[in-house]
Amino acid sequence: MSVVPLHTPRWVPDEFLVEAAIGGRVHHDQLPDHDRAWLIAQLSHRGYHNAVIADWLRCSPRTVQNARAHPVYSLTLQLCKAESDLLRKSRPAPTVIGLTDLVRERDRLRDQRGQLIEQLAAARAAITECPPPVIILRPAHTPRRRRIPAPTLPLFEIGDTA
Asked: Tell me, what DSSP letter sits at residue 48?
């Protein structure tokens, strides 16, 4: 007779797991199959390839490919695509007023950059003389003399010990 739990806790993805995997702090053996499939789906949705994901998780690209066969992978990937589509549709479309503000800001920054370049050129022109270059002379390499070892007492006497 098997025991079936009456209440299973709801699975919630770890919000820092993706960043930890990108940083190389997650090993594929540390994750259960569904977490591994979820993580690989998240990384795949962000545009990373099998070889990169395998390098981060310290496994073979074949292991990553096998995790893509898990049902959690396909469900997570569809969810990620739906969320990104919803986010893209909810953003306001660029308006002509917004574009003109951006063009005005770009022109202002270009003018400011031009002024800074002119100020730098004027400061360089004000410096008429450059200090003389410093030349460092090093003495020629002299060969080192061999060190003569310090005399030591013999460990035993040589010769007759009568």
From this structure: -
**Residue 36 shares a structural domain with residue 84:** yes
Q: How many residues does the chain have?
A: 162
My answer on whether 60 and 27 are in the same domain is yes
Whole-model pTM: value is: 0.54
Is the Cβ–Cβ distance between 24 and 52 less than 8 Å?
no
37-56 residue pLDDT tens: 999 999 999 999 999 999 99
Do 55 and 102 lie in one domain? The reply is: no
Structural domain contains residue 31: yes
Report how many domains make up the chain. 2
Residue ranges making up the domain that contains 50: 17-90
Q: Taking the chain, what is the end-to-end CA distance rounded to the nearest angstrom?
A: 95
Rounded Cα distance between 114 and 110, Å, is 6
Q: How far is CA 2 from CA 6, 10, 78, in A?
A: 12, 22, 34
